[in-house]
Every structure is written in structure tokens, then in C-alpha cells.
Amino acid sequence: MAELLSDEEIRTQLPDEWEQEGDEIARTYAFDDYLAGVSFATQVGEVAEEEFHHPEIRIGYEEVEVRLTSHEEGGITEKDIRLANLFDSEY
């Protein structure tokens, strides 16, 4: 089981554009059109499946919101930070 990160650890490790919202980290990615966002969400899903750590994904018209938390641990862990960085590399 992964250890929860402190608020200070989250602040220092959180990638740009990501925000802590309670026990989750979240980012909204902007796209020129709906299908570009759908394609990105598919890429995020594939990475998440490989890592066996699954985010909440909300697809809007020109944006995709991604939220991460480690449910079993009850908050934010290194796994969430790692995935945020991996998702950003797909963008």
C-alpha cells in the first residue's frame, strides 16, 4: 500500500497546471475540438490501464478534465503524481 503524501509534498511535486482539490488532484486540458479531446481521453485510459491506476475522466466539448486519487489509501500518493506526469507527456 502506498503512503499518503502530505500537503507540502503534494505542493512541491504537483506538475504545472494540476491543482489539489481535497483528496484529489485535477487538471483540465483544452482542445480545439471534441474529437481531439476524445482521442486524448483514450490515450489517458490506455496509460491508466497499463499502470493499473484509473482516473476519473470527464469529456466536454473542447476540454477534458482528469481527476486522480488513491481510493484504497484515502488520498493522494506518489501513484497519482506519477500518472499526472505521464498524462501531461501524452498532451
What does this protein structure show overall?
- With 91 residues, the chain is of the alpha+beta class.
- The chain has one domain (7-90): Transcriptional coactivator/pterin dehydratase (Gyrase A, domain 2), CATH 3.30.1360.20.
- Helix content is 42%, strand content 22%.
- The chain has a 4-stranded antiparallel sheet, with helices on one face.
- The longest helix is centred in the middle third of the chain and has 18 residues, at 34-51.
- It is globular, with a radius of gyration of 13 Å.
- It starts with 6 loop residues before the first helix and ends with a helix.
- The model has no long low-confidence stretch (mean pLDDT 96).
Q: What is the topology?
A:
Layout lengths: L6 H7 L5 E3 L2 E7 L3 H18 L4 E4 L3 E6 L9 H13 L1
Antiparallel strand pairs: 1-2, 2-4, 3-4
Helix pairs in contact: 2-3
Shape: globular
Low-confidence stretches: none
Number of helices: 3
Tell me the domain tally. 1
Q: Indicate the percent of residues in helices.
A: 40-55%
Structural class: alpha+beta
> In CATH, what is the class?
Alpha Beta
Order of helices and strands: HEEHEEH
Q: How many E-type strands?
A: 4
Strand order in the largest sheet: 1-2-4-3
Q: Please tell me the overall pLDDT.
A: 96
Key features of this structure:
single chain; 91 residues; alpha+beta; four-stranded antiparallel β-sheet; 4 strands; globular
